[in-house]
Specification:
Distance between the termini: 91 Å
Mean pLDDT: 85
Shape: elongated
Helix content: under 10%
Radius of gyration: 28 Å
Bound molecules: zinc ion
Strand content: over 45%
Order of helices and strands: HEEEEEEEEEEEEEEEEEEE
Structural class: mainly beta
Number of helices: 1
Number of strands: 19
Oligomer: single chain
């Protein structure tokens, strides 16, 4: 029976069910060999699941909890091919990532250089096709970010709505369309009142190229961006400059020009209101 359990353990799938935070210090590996005749009162019964710390993966004896099969992770830059965690090390610190079956990380233990740890986690809901439906990101126990996702006509996931919860109690909520363009953004103060609430409108030309972008605060148009083609090639690519008109509170307008990378061009005007 014991032998059977042991074989099952060795060939078992590598599920990660437990994390051992100890063992990051200087304690030496006391992996006792079964062949040694010392104080070993039993043959270890090796658990099925990999247990990990930031340096290694191992299996615990189900009877005495001793570490067996201790091995270093086989990657310092990506996932370990044996146990599936990623231990990313930098400057004496380490971020240890755990993943779900869809390849998205669900837990990250940050080991600071002084050995202290903090933990972040992500919770997901999935559509049946495996695309993400919702995500909740926690920093420690604090919900820091949550988002709802859509799936576009090509089957790609996009973030439709997200909320960032700041430590000072303020909150930023934005909504995007399936092209990734921002449709609405709202900043809330800590007391729940609105600091700003913007809505965007887009106009598209040939080849679904964005031609015009309008930003409203409530019903008031506060900014307009025109995408001015400098040249257009035969397959719809090309080069653009951006004309950004800002309608200021004092009734004046400011017109500025930018290149495609958002770098300012020279010919900016300050224009008096009509
Ligand atoms: Zn044992
Ligand atoms: Zn490993």
């Amino acid at each position: 029976m014991k032998l059977f359990k042991k074989l099952l353990g060795v060939t078992g799938v590598c599920l990660l069910t437990a994390v051992v935070l100890a063992g990051c210090g200087g304690d030496t590996d006391k992996n006792t060999k079964e062949t040694e005749n010392e104080s070993v009162a039993h043959e270890h019964t090796v658990g099925a699941d990999w247990v990990v710390d930031k340096d290694s993966h191992f299996k615990l004896c189900t009877e005495c909890n001793e570490k067996t099969e201790v091995e270093a992770h086989d990657s310092e830059t990506g996932k370990c091919s044996v146990c599936g965690v990623a231990a990313i090390k930098k400057d004496g610190a380490c971020d240890l990532y755990f993943y779900d079956d869809n390849g998205n990380w669900i837990k990250c233990i940050h080991y600071a250089a002084d050995g202290s740890t903090t933990e972040d986690k992500n919770e997901y809901e999935y559509f049946e096709d495996g695309n993400i439906k919702t995500i909740k990101m926690y920093k420690g126990d604090r919900l820091a970010y949550e988002a709802e996702y859509g799936v576009d006509t090509d089957g790609y996931n996009y973030e439709a709505k997200s909320t960032q919860y700041n430590e000072d109690g303020t909150k930023y909520v934005c909504e995007s369309d399936s092209k990734g363009d921002l449709m609405k953004e709202t900043m809330y103060k800590a007391d729940g009142s609105i600091e700003y609430d913007y809505r965007m409108e887009y106009t598209y030309g040939d080849n679904a190229k964005k031609m015009n972008e309008k930003k409203f605060s409530g019903d008031k148009l506060i900014q307009e961006i025109k995408y001015i083609p400098l040249f257009v090639d035969s397959w719809g690519g090309g080069s653009y400059k951006l004309e950004v008109t800002t309608y200021n509170d004092d009734g004046t307008t400011t017109v500025e020009y930018f290149n495609e990378n958002g770098e300012p061009l020279e010919d900016t005007d300050e224009t008096a209101a009509a």
